[in-house]
Structures are given as C-alpha cells and as structure tokens.
C-alpha cells in the first residue's frame, strides 16, 4: 500500500495550464503513478516485503510461527504489566498490546537510487546506524530526519519503529528524474528531487517525512481504508504526526508553531497544508489553489482524489489545531496522546467514518482527562463543533 503526499489536483492543474512540455510530462508521470499508488487494499493479506541489505522479510500473515511470536509477546506483556501496570496509552476496549517494550534506537537505512524509478531500494545501503556520513548530502538529511522521527515516537509515545516492535525505517532518495512526489509504499519511503519549478526537493522536509512514516504506523496499528472518510482520517493522522514531529523537533508550543506542513515545498507558496486555515496553503499559477474545505458542511463527496482523502483531511486538521491551541502547551501532550491512543488501541474500523472517529477521540479524552466534566473534554467538543462534524458523544 502506498501513499503519495501531493494531492492529484495539483498535477491536473499543471497539465491543464503549463506551456512547458517537460513539466507537463513530469506532472503526467506523477499523476499516473498516483493511481497505482492508491490502489484499494485489504489489510492482513500477508503481503511479504523484502527490502534492503539484511534480507529481512516482513509479513502480516499469522503463520504458526507468527502466532507463537504473538503468544510470547503477550506473555512478555503480562510480565511487563506486573512491573509496569500503567501503560499511558491503553484504553478500555483496546486491542491487547503486542509489542516488545524496548526503547533502543530503531535501525534506519537510507539508499540512493540515482534517479532510478524502481520501487525497490538498491542493494547497497548508503547510510545506516554506525556507518560513516554518506557522500550524498540528501542521504544524510533523510538519515537525520529518520532519527528525529524515531526519537519522537520513542520519547513521546514509547513506540518503537514502524510497527511498535522495532521494525526499521527505510528511505530512498533521488527517486526518478526530477520526480514530483514522495511516497510510502509499505516497505519504505521514496523521495523525488522535484524540479524547482512545481516542487522543491521532497527529502528536505521533516514534516513530509513524518507524514509518510505516519502512514506506515497507521497501516501497522489501525489500517484505515484509503478512500472516502476513512481515507481522509488516514491522511489527517499522517498530517498530525508530521506537524507534531516538526513542532517537537523545534521545541515549539502550539502558539509558536506556524501549523504548516511542507512550508516552502511549492515554490512561491506558503506550504502544502495549513492546519489553521485549510484551503489557503497555496495559490500559485503553477500549483493552482489549495482545495481543502475548512468545515464538514463543505466537504467533498465525489470520487476524485480517492473520494477526497487529501481534501476532507483539512477540516479534521483544523479541529486538531483548534483543540491544541485552546489548551496551549505542546501538541504532542494531551492532543497527541488522545489521537495516538485511538490508533494504538485499534479503536477505528477499517472503513470508519468521521462521526465514529470523533466519538473515539472524545472517549479517549474523557478517559484520560477527568471525564466529561473535566476541563479538557469541553474544549475538544468545541473544536469538533466549530468545524461542524456530526458528533455522537460517548456514553462515558
Ligand atoms: Zn498522505
């Protein structure tokens, strides 16, 4: 399963308006790939992924060996529960935690594909833990960003690697020639260099990297069908991880942050996404205008963009922004804990809708922070009301 970070309407705009045949070709190529990247996918079919220099195969399939491993992990959990009875992210009704409670540095591998368009990383790794600094500066940039992503999830949520169980982070730079996107394909992340006209270099943006690895974590903990409302929630979660990682890396409070994802990625525009004012991140002759509605009533209901996954994430982002700024402090504290716990406990169904998602955030908020009569719950309720989503309050 793969996700590109750029919404398709930007490519369509370029194709419609540019006089530059090369740029048109680049946009057509990226748009064409999007339809392949976003093919519908059922989780748990056991797609094995082999990548990298250590020949590790990852599979979701529960083989007898896998079941044995889960059993061992559950026994470890029980043991750990005796020593550490409170997991700060556990919620009632959540799926049993199946991961090792380690907090060692997660392996990170960065590859240079030298403009190749193969979706498998090259056989030679250019940078990993313990290796010297690479010659290619973009390899090092991505390695450093992956280190931040790893540190963020371990430090803030006690969560290790992509799957919570130490699965490594992999990034490949210089994907294709002047490629106008970055994407997560289930095995790792691939970064286009952009062309400096429609897009700058994707590997330069920590929040874009955080967004893409966020998709990996969603797929691992609570897969969400990448279409319609569940797809918009999927995109929203990836944006939330991206913005939190950016703020955490800069030690920024919610009041200090610009709440932009991919600031500077589109030449001449502010950013790729704007949490505070969805629909205003860009408006340039090349990219066209940001199309995100800022409230539920204006939501997109057609089939374009996988049913508006990059469009209807906007007002969800705005609700997160409104809630976080109404509390003050750090986004990754109370708002981050609530959002993460809903995912971590697998409380969302594969094709969940926005209303159910809203209910689960309210449930987690109530559970963690003093119930409905606490000071936090009304602020979350107010944020959801402001963006106009249908609200069904939890019973407790
Ligand atoms: Zn995405």
From TrEMBL:
<keyword id="KW-0482">Metalloprotease</keyword>
<dbReference type="GO" id="GO:0046872">
    <property type="term" value="F:metal ion binding"/>
</dbReference>
<feature type="compositionally biased region" description="Basic and acidic residues">
    <location>
        <begin position="80"/>
        <end position="93"/>
    </location>
</feature>
<dbReference type="InterPro" id="IPR052759">
    <property type="entry name" value="Metalloprotease_M4"/>
</dbReference>
<dbReference type="InterPro" id="IPR001570">
    <property type="entry name" value="Peptidase_M4_C_domain"/>
</dbReference>
<feature type="compositionally biased region" description="Polar residues">
    <location>
        <begin position="58"/>
        <end position="68"/>
    </location>
</feature>
<dbReference type="Pfam" id="PF02868">
    <property type="entry name" value="Peptidase_M4_C"/>
</dbReference>
<feature type="domain" description="Peptidase M4">
    <location>
        <begin position="146"/>
        <end position="218"/>
    </location>
</feature>
<dbReference type="Pfam" id="PF01447">
    <property type="entry name" value="Peptidase_M4"/>
</dbReference>
<keyword id="KW-0862">Zinc</keyword>
<keyword id="KW-0378">Hydrolase</keyword>
<keyword id="KW-0645">Protease</keyword>
<feature type="domain" description="Peptidase M4 C-terminal">
    <location>
        <begin position="224"/>
        <end position="389"/>
    </location>
</feature>
<comment type="similarity">
    <text>Belongs to the peptidase M4 family.</text>
</comment>
<protein>
    <submittedName>
        <fullName>Extracellular metalloprotease</fullName>
    </submittedName>
</protein>
<dbReference type="InterPro" id="IPR013856">
    <property type="entry name" value="Peptidase_M4_domain"/>
</dbReference>
<dbReference type="GO" id="GO:0006508">
    <property type="term" value="P:proteolysis"/>
</dbReference>
<dbReference type="GO" id="GO:0004222">
    <property type="term" value="F:metalloendopeptidase activity"/>
</dbReference>
<dbReference type="InterPro" id="IPR027268">
    <property type="entry name" value="Peptidase_M4/M1_CTD_sf"/>
</dbReference>
<feature type="region of interest" description="Disordered">
    <location>
        <begin position="33"/>
        <end position="107"/>
    </location>
</feature>
<dbReference type="InterPro" id="IPR023612">
    <property type="entry name" value="Peptidase_M4"/>
</dbReference>
<keyword id="KW-0479">Metal-binding</keyword>
